Amino acid sequence: MLFSQGKISDLITPMALVIDLLIINLTAYFLPINLEEAIIFHSYISLAWMFIAFKTEFYVVYRYSKVTHILKRIVRQFFFYFLILYAFIGFFKQPNMSRLALAQYAVLVFITVSIVKFLNYYLLMSYRERVKSSLRTVVVIGQNRKADQLIAVFKERTEFGYEFKKQFCPSNNEFNIQSCFDYILANQIDEIYCSISELKNKEIIAFINFSDNNLKTLKFLPDNKNIYSKKLKLEYYDYLPILSLRDIPLHNPINAFIKRAFDIGFSLLVILGLLIWLTPLLGLIIWLDSKGPIFFVQKRSGLDNREFYCYKFRSMAMNQNADQFQAKKNDMRVTTIGNFIRKTSIDELPQFYNVLFGDMSVVGPRPHMIKHTNEFAQKIDKYMVRHFVKPGITGLAQVRGYRGEIERESDIQNRTKFDVFYIENWSFLLDIKIIIQTVLNVFKGDDKAY
Hints:
Number of helices: 14
Number of domains: 3
Subcellular location: Membrane
Domain Bacterial sugar transferase: 259-444
Structural class: alpha/beta
Number of strands: 10
Keywords: Membrane, Transferase, Transmembrane, Transmembrane helix
Shape: flat
Membrane topology: Multi-pass membrane protein
Strand order of the largest sheet: 2-1-3-4-6-5
InterPro entries: Bact_transf, EPS_sugar_tfrase
């Protein structure tokens, strides 16, 4: 599948973008604007719309967003769009273009897109409320006025898509933080809301570490504690302020759509331009060098720690230890052709099928064997944060020299550090930079490529 299974939210943004592009282009086509360069005009307004939408976060609408939030997004989007629209006349010297028809076009597009935007918002809210789809299970830590208000929001505003499960009271003598963690894991809770006025600093740190290491979303009911010293994102549920500890750029629908669109386009380019002829040729060489299958298929840890089958060209002789031990320098299991394709990273190319299927991305934290994920999750702090995004064929840690065999604990610590930095500071340009550096490293060679 091109998008994550079972998540309607993955399709909302691309569908909304396609509908809006159809509206702005079809309206221009049928109105008498007197276009002399129709192809240029339609390309211009389409690119302009997408660029402005990306900068204004036009498609960033959360389940708890208010109508005023959407209205502000619409006004901001069209203000810049109208400026760029009229700039077309001067940029491309179109004296015969009808200014009146262009004004009619602008008003008509504004009304139509606004209606579609609000209709989509209300239909989605109604869908969540009636079908109970894509529910996020939550617990609240704290028992005070603000905590009770938040619970009331979860229960009364069912269109937000939250399912309240349990309230814990830290001021109660029977409160045990480990029991709280056990409940969250046993009931597969998605989000934790803490009223930090009732928590000690060491308990706040415990919740932060627990959520990072178990892929749980942690949010706070604000007060005047040290949590404000961190980089936080302020959100509103109804009229109640909520603080998010970690803002992940790829959880933004526009960013996720841009990355997914690039992944699909890039993977198709590699598959159709390279793998389609390289696979049978390389497959024959692999088979002649060592009897066995062409591909090596292994379970790896992916997005949200879900397991998936990762594909590689087989570079080792058939053995029983493939799922237990990483390849080491001068590893006797590596075949003659396997040594070459590992040094040049050709063995990783079939993972572009993983990218196309949606299990991986071109750039992201490298996926590890299930055994190693379980091992490192226990030893390395923040290790599980890597699983907040899709794993990648290459990543920031790899181009910084932390690829291949993990010889000492500092290797995985530094790899995790770079992976977390990438997740919290993602940008499309950073992905391009990592891809270019990866290609350069292939030609220069890498001491860890074995």
